Amino acid sequence: SQTIHQWPATLVQPVGSPLSLECTVEGTSNPNLYWYRQAAGRGLQLLFYSVGIGQISSEVPQNLSASRPQDRQFILSSKKLLLSDSGFYLCAWTSNEAFFGQGTRLTVV
Amino acid sequence: QKEVEQNSGPLSVPEGAIASLNCTYSDRGSQSFFWYRQYSGKSPELIMSIYSNGDKEDGRFTAQLNKASQYVSLLIRDSQPSDSATYLCAVPAYSGAGSYQLTFGKGTKLSVIP
Question: Are A28 and A106 in contact (CB under 8 A)?
Fold first, then answer.
């Protein structure tokens, strides 16, 4: 069966520091992968999606970037975090419906 | 811009009652519809999917779809305190480049009062 791993679960980072969140999927090949962000009390905002290695589409211009160095690995990065980057970050893969990782609670201080 | 709309709530129901959650969507061509449950601080989990007009039942959950009205709902019978969560409606949209994305509503927060 397919599983999705995302880490770390929680992260507290100072403003201006870099960020790297990693997501890996097991049990499927060439998955469509997604990064979502959920701000406090808000809905799920799609940040990036990828249909294959090296293929990244960005949904919103912002302080973040994504990379897909391997088929089942998806990385979310930032060179310099802003306070507004705080939120709950979710990695997901889709067949028809979406399946989510456990999420990373990021607090920028 | 494809949209999915939900009442944000909170919706409060007494234990044992029926909770009714509603969702409307803008893309008339949508063919699949999903309901996710999200407990506070946790990631969303899929609880129901529906593809055809009418009702689909799974245990205490019933999803209802009306494509003509662009409306999908989730009924929870015999509501339990453990059903207290935020319920997200999701509708896929083909985005080209071989992928499709799920567009989520903002969610309805349900509280079941013992």
Answer: no
Of A57, A96, A103, the CB nearest to B32: A96
Per-residue pLDDT, averaged over A25-35, amounts to 90
Chain A contact probe: residue of B7, B31, B99, B109 with most A CBs at under 10 A:
B99
- In terms of phi and psi (left: phi > 0; alpha: psi -120 to 50; beta: otherwise), the region of A36 is beta
Nearest one of A3, A12, A6 to A89, comparing CA atoms:
A6
pLDDT value at B98 more than 60: no
**Among A89-93, B6-10, B36-40, B54-58, whose mean pLDDT is lowest?**
B6-10
The answer to whether A39 faces chain B, any CB pair under 8 Å, is no
A44 contacts B104 by C-beta, under 8 angstroms? yes
